[in-house]
Amino acid sequence: MASRKMDSLQAEWRKLYGETLPSLALSKSSAQRTWPVHLDHCFARIILDNAVGNGEPWTSKLKSPAFKNMTAMQLQKCIALGKAIRDGKEDLVKLDAKSLEARGKKPKSTANSKRTCGIANNGEGLVGEANPPKKRQLDIKSALSPREPTNESLPPTSLPTSSPDPSRTSSEPVSIERGLHTLITTSSLSPFRQRVLLALCQVPSGHFTSYAALSAHLQSSARAVGNALRNNPFAPRVPCHRVVAADRSLGGFGGEWGKEGKFAGEKVRLLREEGVIVHVGKGKVEGEVWKGFR
């Protein structure tokens, strides 16, 4: 009996922060005067910090993943706060500010932009605040910048590359197969993550796009797109290997970043098999960034 109750509370909590609140934020529901965040793990961070952390980051009180380690009372408190946000009875901006203050951060202006939060998500549950080394943070921020560079001449690599197959490298957007479309749209992923994956499905084989190009199409931010692609449950059918950084460096893959990442070799292999030229020495691809989203 107790086990069924916990299962029910966990399912209600995950649906609330993972689907309900992101959907309201995406639709700009009038329940809140403004929605400072729109990603599922950001809502979880705000609610957990306020309901469980009590002035401290929730990770100081609870092991991750949160939903598996909360007591029934903690789950009920989080659900109650989430519903209060949903119904407009709690001010999300103020709650976000309290959460950020507990983490030693200053809230950013939300008047004209949406902000993502530095919380890592392993696909099963929140795993705490993402704190990569400062230099790595700057490198990632620079690489995800929406400023697209001009096509540069890269030195040839000693490793062989595949020649593009004209029959596989049309620049026209790919029509998403019905089965995959249904799989994505009926999943428990947040509406924003679904939109990112559906857009990515349009990128044709033999081409690559960038976080910046995807974010421009979705009217979001490159960092939000990167967060959404950190865990792709439908790879390789949803080709996250076709997304690179703004400077044409490899970007992320399999939760790792850059050419030194654990799975960078696999990303290079997949791109080359599709005919994309990859210069391994510099960890960059060659060619124009595909932006033909519709």
Low-confidence stretches: 110-116, 118-169
Report the principal-axis shape.
elongated
Which strand order spans the largest sheet, edge to edge or round the barrel? 1-2
Count the DSSP helices. 11
Helix content: 40-55%
Indicate the structural class. Answer: mainly alpha
SSE topology string: HHHHHEEHHHEHHEEEHEE
Structure description:
The protein is mainly α and 294 residues long. The protein is built from eleven helices and eight strands. A two-stranded antiparallel sheet has the order 1-2. Strands 3-4 form a two-stranded parallel ribbon. A two-stranded antiparallel ribbon has the order 5-6. Strand 7 and strand 8 form a beta hairpin. The longest helix has 25 residues, at 2-26. The radius of gyration is 20 Å and the shape is elongated.
Compact overview of the structure:
With 294 residues, this protein is mainly α.
Secondary structure topology:
Blueprint: H1 2-26, H2 40-53, H3 66-69, H4 72-86, H5 92-102, E1 119-121, E2 126-129, H6 134-143, H7 178-185, H8 191-200, E3 209-210, H9 211-218, H10 222-228, E4 243-244, E5 252-253, E6 256-257, H11 264-273, E7 277-279, E8 284-286
Descriptive tags:
mainly alpha, 7% strand, two-stranded parallel ribbon, 41% helix, two-stranded antiparallel ribbon, 294 residues, 11 helices, 8 strands
